[in-house]
Design brief:
With 214 residues, the chain is of the alpha/beta class. The chain has one domain: Phosphoglycerate mutase-like (Rossmann fold, 3-Layer(aba) Sandwich). The protein is built from six helices and seven strands; from the N terminus they run βααβαβαβαβββα. The chain has a seven-stranded mixed sheet, sandwiched between helices. α2 packs parallel to α3 and α4 crosses α5.
Length: 214
């Protein structure tokens, strides 16, 4: 089974280094172009199922990708970014009392989603006529936390060229899954589809939400 996980396109909050967390911010003009570009890059994939965070920036990215695929989109709250509580919508470093989910709570939610959805598809995969290929659209902190959690398990490995780094907007992470706790990470945050974008439109190198999920 193959799982392709895509981070949503850019938002104004990304550009302004504002914590979003579960704030329902929208794609900006560049983010919509990024979504259309990754959609073209993935148009020949044979997705069998599609999941997205229910936040609009992820959902709109997923719908852009699925314009080339006749696959129903399932939106899930479990795929949301980490909650930053009262800090959401504020610049990084702003002091607030309610900081939202703890790192441990977030990691548990991320792994809970993975275990639930992978278990369902792996059990059904035995009866499928064609290979299962999942599209998942989520957030930078979610994706990075998932990768870090999986690679602490002995059953997951990286291809030599892969490593956990920054997950850029519309970056594609590809995982070959043998079992819930076994598989190989083929690529991590690949944004080569954005290579034709100009310097002013280059994917951001810093995601403040991602910085605060470790």
């Amino acid at each position: 089974m193959i799982v392709q996980i895509v981070r949503h396109g850019e938002t104004n909050e990304n550009r302004q280094k504002i914590l979003q967390g579960q704030l329902d911010s929208q794609l900006n003009d560049l983010g919509r172009r990024q979504a259309q570009t990754v959609a073209l890059a993935l148009k020949d994939e044979r997705f069998t199922h599609a999941y997205s965070s229910d936040l609009i920036r992820a959902k709109d990215t997923a719908e852009a990708i699925l314009q080339y695929h006749q696959v129903y989109l399932v939106t899930m709250k479990e795929l949301r970014e980490k909650s930053f509580g009262d800090a959401e919508g504020l610049p990084i470093g702003t002091k607030v009392k309610n900081r939202g989910e703890s790192v441990a709570q977030f990691r548990a939610r991320v792994l809970g989603w993975w275990t639930k959805v992978m278990s369902e598809h792996l059990s059904n995969d035995l009866f499928e006529e064609k290979p299962t290929i999942l599209l998942v659209v989520s957030h930078g902190g979610f994706i990075r936390t998932l990768l870090e959690a999986l690679t602490t398990q002995d059953g997951f490995s990286f291809e030599a060229k892969s490593h956990i780094g920054h997950i850029p907007n519309t970056g594609v992470t590809t995982i070959q899954v043998s079992d819930v706790s076994r598989g190989q990470i083929i690529s991590c945050g690949d944004d080569s589809h954005l290579s034709t974008f100009g310097e002013q439109e280059a994917a951001l190198k810093i995601n403040v939400d991602e910085l605060l999920t470790a």
